[in-house]
Design goal:
The chain is of the alpha/beta class. It has three helices and nine strands, in the order βββαβαβββαββ. Helix 1 runs parallel beside helix 2.
Length: 192
């Protein structure tokens, strides 16, 4: 066994990674109809074949209908995503590679004329500069619904065999950078 620290196993909560090499979350825009079909699966499987220990998928998968994808993202709010996620994770697991997904609610970082044409929501009504949306001020019932949307999306990913999730918490609806200095939250191996 190599003594190179990069090639040594790494413990991430309850998940043991075979080395310290990973791909970070990004969206190659390969989903079809919001699903990570064959091309998306093959994209991540090739990295697993190459020996990485962790493949972070999605550059963020949408957890709710009012968070329409801007970059052809995975629609984690749809039940039909589960078998595609299962195919992806099974393919990577065959090569000893763990798989996680980044989940988000884009908040005002999206636009109203995508997906189901629902208004975006945010903690303020200020226009978002990149996508130019004027968001609806979030209400208590929206907050409760979106919390449930995150939980439902996480359960779909768990049902699809994912080893964990990453929550996108900066620049989107859950902008918690003041509370979480690392700007990323990993939920690994579903034992938290």
């Amino acid at each position: 066994m190599s003594q190179d620290p990069l090639l040594q196993p790494f413990q991430l909560k309850h998940l043991t990674l075979k080395n310290r090499i990973m791909t970070t979350s990004h969206e190659p825009a390969y989903p079809e109809d919001g699903m990570p079909k064959e091309r998306y699966r093959a994209y991540h499987e090739e990295r697993a074949k190459g020996g990485i220990a962790l493949s972070m998928t999605a550059g963020s998968a949408a957890v709710a209908k009012d968070s329409p994808p801007v970059f052809n993202n995975i629609l984690a709010y749809k039940d039909e995503v589960v078998p595609y996620i299962q195919d992806l994770t099974d393919s990577c697991h065959e090569h000893g590679c763990a798989v996680m997904i980044q989940l988000t609610h884009l908040g005002r970082r999206t636009t109203w004329n995508k997906g189901d044409w629902l208004p975006s929501v945010s903690s303020s009504k200020h226009r978002e500069p990149a996508h130019r949306a004027f968001p609806k001020l979030i209400e208590d019932w929206d907050i409760e619904r979106i919390i449930n949307d995150f939980a439902d999306a996480a359960q779909r990913m768990q049902a699809g065999g994912m080893d964990g999730i990453e929550l996108q918490v900066y620049g989107h609806l859950l902008d918690l950078t003041a509370l979480i200095p690392s700007r990323t939250v990993f939920v690994s191996h579903w034992r938290c």
